[in-house]
Amino acid sequence: MTSLIIFLGVVLVLAILYMIYRVSSLVSIAKGYDDDKIGTANKVNAALFIVFMIGSLGWFFWYSFAHFDTYNLPIASEHGAHTDLLFWITMGVTVVAFVIISVVMFVFIYQYQHEEGRKAKFFPDNHHLELAWTIIPAIVLAVLIFTGLRAWNDITSPASKDAELIEVIGQQFAWTVRYPGVKDKELGKVNYKLIDNFGNEFGLDLTDKNSFDDFKSLELHLPVDKEILLKIRAKDVLHSVFLPHFRVKMDAVPGMPTQFKFKVTKTTQEMRDELGNQNFNYEMACTEICGRGHFSMKMAVIVEEQEAYEKWKASQEAWLKQNPDYLKKVPNALKEAAMIKAGMQRDPGSSVAEVNE
Ligand SMILES: [Cu+2]
User: Fold this and answer.
1) Eight-state DSSP code of residue 345
2) Per-residue DSSP letters for 115-153?
3) What spacing in Å lies between the alpha carbon of 239 and ligand 1's midpoint?
4) Model confidence over 135-145: pLDDT tens digits?
5) Which of 81, 173, 294, 308 is exposed most, by the fewest CB atoms within 10 A?
6) How far apart are CA 349 and CA 152, in angstroms?
């Protein structure tokens, strides 16, 4: 009902404005054509364009510098410094083009306002000009694209063998994280057909022995100064992993796993000290509008020294231990190995060693 009233109000206001315009033009026709008035209106409009140009460009530059810190977060990753540099070079080039185009556009409006007796100049074409504005942008854009492509290849290329493997899964409206566990460094196989409502939210394939020690986490723990390979997937719609301080941003696409390789350079504590804010926490957000709860789709990120990170990993319970019902999905031949790997049963080998100590 309210929207209908607002709509009718807008229609009425527009109708009134149109009537005023009609009446005033009819009055001017009745009074006879007034050349002077057009001249004044032209001058006022031309001057207003210049005022608008100075005002908006001034506001644009003031905002960009005065609020720099609110939209430019400190960098805490190795490739981040490089991608930021590329970003600022692109920004520099586009701002120069933007200012030149804006100034020329508004100054021409002022310069070439209506004047009695002035005729437009006929200017068919100019090969030098055409060549200049084709070749220069082509070279600049090619350089920007190729340097960008190199940076892209760098973050999406295969990771080194000892990279820390972590899987991030997006679903409406939460992230889940899976670690390969401490017994092996491999993530167990997954199959979306195995996802169920009883606990197997990853679709873990329990016939794969790499899956036995995998564990789930509701926080993203990352080691500092170590290559990290994020394996990213989605269970329902498009999501996007966004770790702004690490300059990591990668879509999570259902049916098409993606990945991102990076190295964090500052622990949470180091960043807290740098910002002088002991409450600071890194955050992983979703940056793809994925539905009603999109705004709440975030996860706390904790960056620690290698030692603390390993300790945290060792303290986590395997997914299989938390969901013992799934033991029946493990092939009989692998059951004992699965229980040992998941920490559900003491390793007979290690218990002998403990007794001997
Ligand atoms: Cu999302």
Assistant:
1) S
2) -TT--PPP----HHHHHHHHHHHHHHHHHHHHHHHHHHH
3) 4
4) 999 999 999 99
5) 81
6) 47
Percent of the chain with pLDDT over 90: 57
**Ligand 1 mean position, distance from CA 16 (Å):** 45
The set of residues, in sequence order, having a beta carbon less than 8 Å from that of 282 and lying 6+ positions away, is: 76, 243, 245, 246, 268, 271, 300, 301, 302, 303
Distance, CA 135 to ligand 1 centroid (Å)?
Answer: 41
The alpha carbon of 67 and the centre of ligand 1 are apart by a number of angstroms equal to: 28
Q: Which two tokens stand for residue 223?
A: 């080691």
Distance 166 CA to ligand 1 centre (A): 18
State the pLDDT confidence band at 295, using cuts at 50, 70 and 90: very high
The Å distance, Cα 172 to ligand 1 centre, comes to 6
Residue 292 Cα to ligand 1 midpoint, Å, equals 10
Is residue 224 a contact partner of residue 264, using CB atoms and an 8 Å limit?
A: yes
**For residue 194, how far is its CA from the centre of ligand 1 (angstroms)?**
22
What the block records as the tokens of 299 is 């996860």
Q: How far apart are CA 272 and CA 257, in angstroms?
A: 33
Q: Report the separation in Å between the CA atom of 348 and the middle of ligand 1, taken as the mean of its atom positions.
A: 44
Q: How far from 41 is each of 51, 190, 196, CA to CA, in Å?
A: 15, 71, 71
Residues 6+ apart with CB under 8 A from 178: 166, 167, 169, 187, 202, 214, 215, 216, 217, 319
pLDDT tens digits for range 75-119: 999 899 999 999 999 999 999 999 999 999 999 999 988 888 888
CA of 289 to the centre of ligand 1 (A): 6
Please tell me the distance between residue 269's alpha carbon and the centre of ligand 1 in angstroms: 28
Ligand 1 geometric centre to CA of 205 (Å): 25
Could you tell me the distance, in angstroms and rounded to a whole number, from the CA of residue 290 to the centre of ligand 1? 5
Q: How far apart are CA 229 and CA 180, in angstroms?
A: 12
pLDDT value at position 323?
84
